[in-house]
Amino acid sequence: MAQRLASPDEDFSAWYNDVVLRADLADYSPVRGCMVIKPYGYELWEGVKGGLDRRFKETGHVNAYFPLFIPMSFLEKESEHVEGFSPQLAVVTHGGGKELEEPLVVRPTSETIIGHMYAQWVQSYRDLPILINQWANVVRWELRTRLFLRTMEFLWQEGHTVHATYEEAQEETLRILDLYADFARSDAAIPVLVGRKSEAEKFPGALASYAIEAMMGDKRALQAGTSHNLGQNFAKAFDVTYLDRNNETQYCWGTSWGVSTRMVGAIIMVHGDAQGLRLPPVIAPIQIVVIPIYKGDDDKRVVMESVTELAKELKDAGLRVHLDSREEYTPGWKFNDWEMRGVPLRLEVGPREVAEGKLTCARRDAGRKSSKKSVSRAGVQDEVKRLLAEIQQSLFDQARAFLDSHVHEARDYEEFKEIVQDGWAYTWWCGSPECEASIQEETKATSRCIPLDQEPGDGRCVHCGAKATERAYFARAY
Fold this sequence. Notes:
By secondary structure, this protein is of the alpha+beta class. The chain has 3 domains: 12-271, Bira Bifunctional Protein, Domain 2 (BirA Bifunctional Protein, domain 2, 2-Layer Sandwich), CATH 3.30.930.10; 288-386, Rossmann fold; 408-475, 2-Layer Sandwich (Translation Initiation Factor IF3). It contains 14 helices and 25 strands. The chain has helices at 12-22, 39-58, 72-76, 79-85, 111-121, 166-186, 233-238, 262-271, 297-316, 331-341, 351-356, 380-405, 413-419, 433-443, and strands at 26-28, 35-37, 62-63, 69-71, 90-95, 98-106, 130-139, 153-163, 192-196, 208-215, 221-231, 241-243, 249-251, 253-260, 288-292, 321-323, 345-349, 358-363, 372-376, 407-409, 424-429, 446-451, 459-460, 467-468, 470-475. The strands form 6 sheets. An 11-stranded mixed beta sheet has the order 3-7-8-14-11-10-9-22-25-21-20, sandwiched between helices. Strands 16-15-17-18-19 form a 5-stranded mixed beta sheet, sandwiched between helices. Strands 4-6-5 form a 3-stranded antiparallel beta sheet. A hairpin with a 6-residue loop joins strand 23 and strand 24 (467-468).
């Protein structure tokens, strides 16, 4: 019998690792800090990718691809950028048995090489805007790694756009932020808080950074997606200019934005429970698993004929269905296996169900005993679609209630310190990097975001007492 999962209440970190491995999402690579994404895990990433890619294209973006190797001199052109990334760079110094004339950096992010190309492509205001996204891998030399959450090599999308004005770039930055939030809430069923990052937390070389922040099952924060207004920093570094309508040369305004395989980790940690994964139906690789139950050959023939027809009918209706016809495992073992993998809906079919024209349904979002019910075989397409929609909303509602119950307003620093030990604090803050550094040193909490929709007003910084005009969320984070 397989060893039980670690308890998420007793050791969340061990539980997370157990789920990733036992649900067949990923495995450790022989290269330190890297991972092998297994087919089931990659299908989940494809669900994330599909939901985002559709939204990008609906808003006028197109996909392209840029090189993995970047000349070192490119990174050195933007001083804040290279300073921010230098500890994480992987650098190639030799190729083909010879030392390279110039070292090549293995892509940590692509602002520099894309900026170089945009300088060749943009001549006039007629060439703007350029709205490009790429799906790629990047390498950042992390010291402490964890599957999906932080690995030396990971998969992501990175969008890079250039515009004629600051206003257009800012509009694009916030459009993508809203797009990410919509994906997280609608597809991944993750309630996210949306806001601006602090000066200390913003992307190196950006004018301003914005993020969606999610609460994991252990109440820690995870930055699940970021959108940056780059201002003219990279345009000036790479001479990305255009002739405006008055025939005058102007620097472009840029943005960049990204979501990575870290989103898979977020889905695991937001929705998982003591039995394993719980996947939102919108992005689940398998939405419905059909389990045939029989003993003798006569029962087998009747049941298999019925479930084969059922699976085809549901697939023809556009649903992602798997018929588990493995004979070497018992139905009970299969139930546990698919619960571990987080399939939203399980349909059980035995001789009794066939005779009565019914199916037994088990929902993964609910407890084991309360989730089972009998449904009619007739009109099953409409019923399972209704159930999947209910499950999607149920997972979001559960995560929203969890978030709401663990965010508290801090009235003073003593209360703040108590809150961030096991939740998120919402409080007045002066915005000073020195103040944030002191808070992090004393509590291990960092500012997660400064919400964009907060009520105007002022107060006193929870830490230093200086006048504050904005509130911020603080939490311990991954």
